[in-house]
Amino acid sequence: MRVNPALVVMSPIHRHPLVLVHGIDDTVAVFDSAIAYLRQQGWSSFHPLNLLPNNGHTGLDVLATQVAHYIERRFPAEQPVDLLGFSMGGLVSRYYIQRLGGLKRVDRFVTVSAPHQGSWLAYGRWNQGCEQMRPNSLFIQDLSQDVNMLSQLAFTSIWTPYDLMIVPAESSRLPVGREIKVPVLTHSGMLTNRISLAAIHSALAVSSLANTAMSL
After folding, report:
1. How many domains does the chain have?
2. How do residues 20-72 score in pLDDT, each as one tens digit?
3. CA distances from 158 to 89, 100, 116, 183 (A)
4. 137: containing domain
């Protein structure tokens, strides 16, 4: 089903603090273009988090505790947050939501080119984080058992069929929430191309289209 975002009418947007979680080998700098774009759209509270280490040498479950501690320290318990996870950061963020209590803190959850079903490229490295990102890994299987938890919040998966880092590209899809497919040609371009940036804006601005697929 295709939905024209221009036809979506929402009540005034509640702009929660936005926590951004990057991918493997990245730093918070990967979000510079996205933050600049969202700032133009009216967002003002950005909280990018540097995961350490960022190369997969530590398990994604351990990295997820960094997200949990960051949110606990920075925001009062009654403050909802929105969460944006790019690539590996999408799986790290999912673990936080599904296993570390993030379901009670997160209002909108957006993943961009996340290997939800794993990526064959994760066989290129032999460390714990990459092993967890392989198709059918125990980590992936564990999160898949109760993936329907994500239907309790405003979840959106944004992906491109041309992604050569997420193999197959359809691994970014999940059977719950909202899905936006964009014609962006590269993995890194998902955080710089204006089409995918518009999709991110749409996901953060709209929370009433759960279980809807959109193509831009």
Report:
1. 1
2. 999 999 999 999 999 999 999 999 999 999 999 999 999 999 999 999 999 99
3. 13, 23, 11, 11
4. 15-45+63-75+90-159+192-209
